[in-house]
Structure formats: structure tokens, C-alpha cells
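can u pls check wat happens w/ flavin-adenine dinucleotide
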Amino acid sequence: MADVVIIGAGHAGVAAAAQLHKRDANLSICLISNEQPLPYHRPPLSKKALFDELLPLELLQAEGFYQAQNIHLQRGATVTHIDRTQRQVTLADGQVLTYTQLIIATGSSLRPMPVAGGERAMGVYNYADIQQLGPRLQAAHNILVIGGGFIGCEIAAGALKLGKNVSLLVSGPRLLRKSIAPAMGEQVTQLHKHSGMHIHTNCHVSHLDDDGVHTNQGVFSGDLIIAGVGANPNIELAKQAGLTIDGGIVVDAFGQTSDTHTYAVGDVASMPLQGKTQRLESIQNANDQAQSVANNIVSHRQNEPARAYNPVPWFWSDQGDLKLQMAGLNDVSAEQKILASDSDTRMTAVQFSKGVMTGVDTLNMPGNHLAARKLLAMSVDITWDMVQDHNQDLKQLFKKLR
Ligand code: FAD
């Protein structure tokens, strides 16, 4: 019997466990991971680890942390069933664990290439993928990457830095079409091209076979094909347990699912955010939502009021020498203003919805990113006139308003 059972030991599961212990050291916490390594940081996989086999895994917590915090971490253990009536989970080895509260933090899995022969393209989601793909990448000369989202761009940029001949096949007119301001997406596309990456835009893949990748622009071949076409939330356990699903596991502002004893956090949770039910795939969300839920569980046990989770989302991506940072919820259809910049490798794009600032994308301008996060967290409507009145300097504007 555990007070809290957590399924999944990614960023969200580990953050929840740590915060639960911090708030109440007497809680018995069971953290179950179907991966073998100690819980690790996922972002470095596509930015560093794939390109350097000698780099050690970056652990989320030191090895002794879990025991010292009274967190019972089970590795290489898969939860196969949730029984909400008995408040029990069953593991693949037959072990049954009873809980008072359950946190589902099962994250996402690599989305397969949705075309015939798609299994010929390898992908990166976890450490096992890196172990398989890393040596093949080192040995390859011509690398084909499919997908112009963050992961595809990171892998292509990293391979280019290793001196590989890299072609990136992108279905849209530019890189990162769905994720960042159009002008910045265009700029990033040009900068990668300038570094020697072969970028094929509006390129639609029909199938893969022995000849390579078949597209509307002909057949592309390479000694290694990698796909970065997104991830799917791991909702199967929740579905089978009868929890409400809408894209991910539906939770309220307190992280609670349709079952009062069950919470969901991180990539797998669909939450109310700015008038919509949506999932966020980011480290910020995994950490912050998990901490919010851990606090609410302890508050509930101590008869204290719960607090709603109301984040300013943010995200980053490192692509060769380019550091992209996004604050706020991305809406590429919003009005975009580009702030004056002294270099084509530095850019800040500000989004306005109905005249109010809702998001800021930056390229190699970390100071503006931090200022944007602080501005978006304030309960003040920021307009373009206010930005103009402060010489388009977000840091100056924040200093004035705080
Ligand atoms: P996950 O990290 O997916 O962890 C879930 C864990 O649960 C996994 O270990 C999974 O194996 C385990 N699990 C699933 N089912 C079961 C089960 N039945 N039993 C036991 N265990 C189970 N975000 C950023 O903000 N910035 C970045 O730069 C960035 N880079 C990324 C690079 C890569 C290569 C990837 C794949 C993602 C990146 N992300 C980045 C996204 C970010 O990593 C995710 O949003 C984050 O990891 C989500 O955390 P999570 O704990 O919800 O899920």
C-alpha cells in the first residue's frame, strides 16, 4: 500500500515525487518506470547525446536521491492495468500495488512515420533509441531527416556539425511552420541552408523502400534515414480504466482526472488553458504541472484548499549555433511584430491577439525571452504601443511595469 503511486518516471513523474516528499516527508511514494536507466533529462538526447556516445546520461536526480527521499523507484517495471474501484495498479510481473492517490505521468511515445515502409526511418524519444541510433549516425555519411519540427531540426543541425551531408525533408514551406512566428521560421530556414543543410520544403513523403524516401520531388536516398514527426500521448492505460480522454487524459485546473483519486500530469494531460482543452509537450509544463498536482494532493490530505495551475508556457530548442526560445502559447495566425535587431542571427517576434501580447519567440536573444516570460506572467495587457514607447526593449518595459 502506497499513499501515492506515480506511473512514469520522466520529468513530470520525478518532479511530482520530489515535491510530494518535500511537502510531506511521511508520505509513502511509489514511482514506476518502464525504462531501465535512472530517470534522465530528455532534451539533451536530440541536442547532444545522439552525437557523442561518450556523454553520460544527464540524470534528473542523483542516484541516492530516491532512497534518501523515501521514494520507492521501480525501474524496468511496466504498469499494465489500473483498477479504479480497488484503487490498485498491476505491473507486468504480476505485482499489485494499492494506492490512495494515483498520478499518471506516462508521457508520450515516438510517432511512427505514417506511410508504407515508415519503419525504415529511425527516431529519437528515449535513451534506448540513442543507443541504437548513435553508432549508426557516427558511421553514416549521407543522412536524410524527415520532419521540420523542433526534433527534426535539432537532429539535422547536430549531424551537420559532425560533418555529415544532411538533407532535411519538410512538408511545409519553411521549418517550424506550426511552432514559431513565420518570419523567424523563414530566418531559421535560411540560416540552416547557409550552414550547408540541404532543405527541401513542400516535400511530401509517399513511402519508403529499398531505394530510399519517395516524395513528390523524387526519390531521396541516404545511408541513414531519421524521422522526427512528433509524439503520441500514452493514454492507453487511462482509456482502459475509463477515464475521460480528449487528445490526452482530461484534467481540471487542479490536475484531477474524471476520477477524484487520479491525477494526470505532463505530456499526457489535456488541461484547460486559455479557453481550450489542450496538451503541452514541454519541460516547463511537465515540471510545473507536476509540482502543482503534488501540492494539491498534500493540501487535500491536510484539508487545505487546492490551487489552480495557470502557467505561462515556455519552450526552447538548440539547433547548432541557434538558440530558439518561445514564451506564451504559440499562435502562428496572430498578428506578428518583429523587433529591431542588429544581426540576422538575432531576432524577436512578438505576437498580439486582439491587440494584446500573447507570445514572444526569440532567436539568440535570451534576455528578451526572460523579460517576455515575466511580462506575460503580469496581469497587465501589453500592447504594441507600450513596446514602442520603450524603444522595443522588453527588459526596459518589464522594469517600468514591475
Ligand atoms: P516522458 O518524458 O515521456 O516520461 C514518461 C515516462 O513514463 C517514460 O519514461 C515512459 O517510458 C514511462 N511510461 C509510459 N508508460 C508507462 C507504463 N505503463 N508503466 C511505467 N512507465 C511508463 N521539451 C522542452 O521543453 N524543451 C526541449 O528542448 C525538448 N527537447 C526534447 C527532445 C526530445 C528528443 C524529446 C523526445 C522531447 C523533448 N522535449 C523538450 C519534450 C519534453 O521532453 C517532454 O515534454 C517531457 O519529457 C514530458 O515529460 P513527461 O514526464 O510528461 O513524459
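The pocket of flavin-adenine dinucleotide is lined by residues 7-13, 32-35, 42-43, 45-46, 78-79, 105-108, 124-125, 151, 234, 237, 266-268, 281-284, 286, 315-317 (CB under 6 Å).
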